[in-house]
């Protein structure tokens, strides 16, 4: 009887060990499967299959080239969206319709962040270019020829308006007060001895309107896109390096793999050669 009982005890222990092993093995598979799913989810969150790049119309040609080059290599799919308004790409990025933009300079982006509680980051330390800023006129060949009471077109956004007013002060046309707000505006003109009349114009529209004015302050890239010789300015401010233009993304995306892919292509010899071919010096790639 004792032997029989011992046999049953051993049998029960054996069955218990088998059951426990099967249970643990199943749990191990469950843990491994869950771990794999978590890893795949994390990878999927960082590695987009497609990104949407927003640019201004005046830069459409060069960023069409960039898009084509990236898509040929197949590491990621890029869709290009082109906008006419200066602020529209940034608004699209803020709304979540775009993943990345390029075309506005850094002071402009910093202003947009403050005014819209945005978290944009410009990666200008990894790639940047700049546009020159000058005074254009079809009526006057030299700065000193601009008459008293002249009508001057000036960009209506805060950073470019400040740049234009400081340029005119540097040339001796104006004296400016300290800014009453964050940026110098027309309200901060202290002395205007030539009694210039200023008209505020959206920066991308200046090329289409400047022939009707005595002079206009604007970017060389805008003038070139309108078919105007970008080097035909009568004076240039020499401050392009203070206004770099680079990729702009949300803070959370700045180290993403797809951002690295775009930066690699922007820094390629093929892209730089095409950039120089298109812009012919009206915009220049800045040294890192």
Automatic annotation (TrEMBL):
Protein name as it appears in the record: YaeC family lipoprotein
InterPro entries per UniProt: Lipoprotein_NlpA
Subcellular compartments: Membrane
Membrane topology term: Lipid-anchor
Tree of life domain: Bacteria
The organism of origin for this protein: Facklamia hominis CCUG 36813
GO (cellular component) term, any one: membrane
Family named by the database record: Belongs to the NlpA lipoprotein family.
Transmembrane segments: 7-26
Keyword field: Lipoprotein, Membrane, Palmitate, Signal, Transmembrane, Transmembrane helix
Broad class of where this protein is predominantly found: membrane
Xref: PANTHER family: D-METHIONINE-BINDING LIPOPROTEIN METQ, METHIONINE-BINDING LIPOPROTEIN METQ
